[in-house]
Design a protein that fits this description.
The chain has about 350 residues and is an alpha/beta fold. The protein has 17 helices and eleven strands. The protein is about 45% helix and about 10% strand. Helix 9 links the parallel strand 5 and strand 6.
């Protein structure tokens, strides 16, 4: 059951009233009962809402917020408002905090230990590996937050599902207007797997262009930190980073090839944000004191053959065939050794049956 305060939030959210205007309106009244009783006669509300005033005034008089609640229930959507006990503390002090979040899935994830994974839609093969490899490790300790866009966002969500982790997708339109439409299946799988779709916009709200950079304050706001996998010079990723810094969130950036225009934004962030550069998921886990894998690797006593593999990779990545030649280990035994070293996060397997050290052995 929703309180009257929450129903008002749902009604105004469904009618597209911005967070700034809603809180300005709320401050004009002495609680929900006063809001409902005197809204129609409030000149300040009329000036603030302009063309929307008559529609909302009529809706309040006719208790249309009850119809809005029925609509949510039919779609199995829950509204978490600024008056709800489920409202996440992480959003309480951000600029333009949302007054309502329409949620499909596990709304309790809003208050879980979240990390945002973001990046360009036009992701390179290297950026794709970064997004996959980092997310695969980080989703063991964090709920992964992203925006359901093409590129890095989709990879982050999909990898989390593959690893049976939890993920939150923050939409730039209504929950019934998933964008891009091609990601509707991914959105469904997120909910089915116990994840969450969330939007501050009404259920049928269109995914208008200006809404995507605006929703990014929620992506960063929900999260302890933000990981940038790949960002060109001009990218919505950069606006999310700016919001994260304003909100006091941690920012992590993976470096890219200096001649690759797809990483100009990433490398620029590394130069301007002290301590942002990360080259392995362990860097982030260690930052938060969660690097159990690192401890396991350090404490693991390698065999002579495993040490030979590590020594060979110390100079750089090698293919399987090259490792056979350099170590003199038989292919069948080498397969076993590589699988064990990869399981312990000492090495990483790349595309093309190529291997490298996983950030080195500390």
């Amino acid at each position: 059951m929703y309180t009257l305060e929450e129903k008002i939030c749902i009604l105004f959210g469904e009618n597209g009233v911005s967070a700034t205007k809603f809180f300005q309106l709320w401050d004009l009244f002495d609680g929900a009962e006063d809001f409902v009783a005197n809204f129609d006669d409030c000149r300040e509300a009329q000036e603030l809402l302009q063309e929307n005033f008559k529609k909302l005034s009529h809706a309040i008089k006719n208790r249309e917020y009850d119809k809005c609640v029925e609509k949510l229930e039919k779609q199995e959507v829950v509204a978490v408002t600024c008056f709800s006990s489920q409202y996440p503390e992480t959003l309480c002090n951000i600029d333009e905090r949302p007054y309502v979040l329409f949620c499909k899935g596990d709304a309790d994830l809003l208050s879980s230990n979240c990390l945002a994974v973001i990046g360009t839609r036009k992701v390179s093969s290297y950026g794709r590996r970064i997004a996959h490899d980092f997310t695969a490790i980080l989703c063991e300790k964090f709920t992964i937050v992203s925006g359901l866009a093409y590129g890095v966002d989709s990879i982050a969500h999909e990898t989390t599902l593959e690893e049976q982790g939890k993920t939150i997708a923050v939409l730039g339109g209504g929950l019934l207007n998933v964008y891009p439409a091609a990601n509707q299946g991914l959105a469904d799988r997120i909910v089915e797997s116990g994840g969450l779709l969330v939007s501050e916009y009404g259920l049928n709200a269109l995914p208008l262009t200006y809404r995507f950079p605006h929703r990014n304050r929620i992506v960063s706001g929900l999260s302890k930190g933000v990981l940038v996998c790949q960002a060109p010079a001009k990218s919505g990723t950069n606006s999310t980073v700016e919001l994260a810094l304003e909100q006091g969130r941690d920012v992590f950036v993976v470096p890219g090839e200096i001649y690759d225009s797809g990483f100009v934004g990433s490398n620029r962030l590394i130069k301007t944000i002290q301590g942002a550069c990360v080259t392995t998921p362990r860097d982030i886990l260690a930052f938060y004191g969660l690097d159990e894998r690192q401890k396991a690797s350090v404490n693991y006593q390698m065999s002579i053959e495993e040490q030979a593999v590590v020594n060979a990779l110390a100079a750089g990545q090698l293919s399987f065939d090259q490792l056979v030649v350099q170590t003199g280990i038989s292919p069948s035994e080498l397969n076993f050794l590589l699988a064990n070293l990869e399981l312990r996060s000492i090495i990483a397997k790349l595309a093309g049956n190529v291997y490298r050290l996983y950030g080195g052995i500390e």
